[in-house]
Amino acid sequence: MQKNRYVEFMLADLIGIGCNFLSRFLFQEAFSFELSVLLSYFVGAVTAYSMLGSAMLKRKKSVFKFISFNIAGVLQTFIVSLWIFAVLENEVSEDIACTTAHSVALGCLLITDYLFNNRMSPAKRNA
C-alpha cells in the first residue's frame, strides 16, 4: 500500500513538472523569463496538488510538507534557472538559453523531489 502511495506522489510530481515546463513557454510570451519561471512553477505545484488533493487533505502534516517542499522547490528552481541562464545567455540564442536553464532547473528539482520523497516515505521512516 505504501509503495503505491509513493508511486502516486512521484507520478503527480512528474506530471506537475511537465506542466511547469510547458506553461513557461506560454507565460514567456507575455512576461519576462524570471517571472515566467515563477508562474510556471505554481502551475506545476497546483497540478500536483490537485492530483494528490484527497491524499493531502487527510493529513495536515502532509499539507505542511507539501507547502514546505514547494517553497524550497520554487527557490531552487528560480535560482538554478537564473544561474544557468546567466552562464548561457551570451553563448546561445535567448530561446535556447531559457529552455536549457529551465530544463536543468527542473531536472535538479526532479532529483531533489525523488530524494525527498524517498527519504520521507513512511516505509523508509519505519525501517
Give your account of this protein's structure.
The chain crosses the membrane at residues 7-27, 39-57, 69-88, 100-116. This is GtrA-like protein. The chain has 127 residues and is an all-alpha fold. The protein has one domain (2-126). The protein is built from five helices and no strands. Helix 1 (2-28) packs antiparallel against helix 4 and helix 3 (60-88) packs antiparallel against helix 4 (94-120).
Summarize the structure.
The protein has 127 residues and is mainly alpha-helical. The chain is built from 5 helices and no strands.
Index terms:
89% helix, transmembrane, mainly alpha, 127 residues, GtrA-like protein, membrane, 5 helices, transmembrane helix
Radius of gyration: 16 Å
**Poorly predicted spans:** none
Number of strands: 0
Strand content: under 5%
What is the string of helix and strand elements? HHHHH
Q: What is the typical, i.e. mean, pLDDT?
A: 85
Structural class of the secondary structure composition? mainly alpha
Sheet with the most strands, sense and barrel status: none
Question: What is the number of independent domains?
Answer: 1
What gap, in angstroms, lies between the N and C termini? Answer: 15 Å
Number of helices: 5
Helix content: over 70%
Shape field: elongated
What's the arrangement of secondary structure elements?
Elements: H1 2-28, H2 33-57, H3 60-88, H4 94-120, H5 122-126
Keywords: Membrane, Transmembrane, Transmembrane helix
Protein name: GtrA-like protein
Organism: Succinivibrio dextrinosolvens
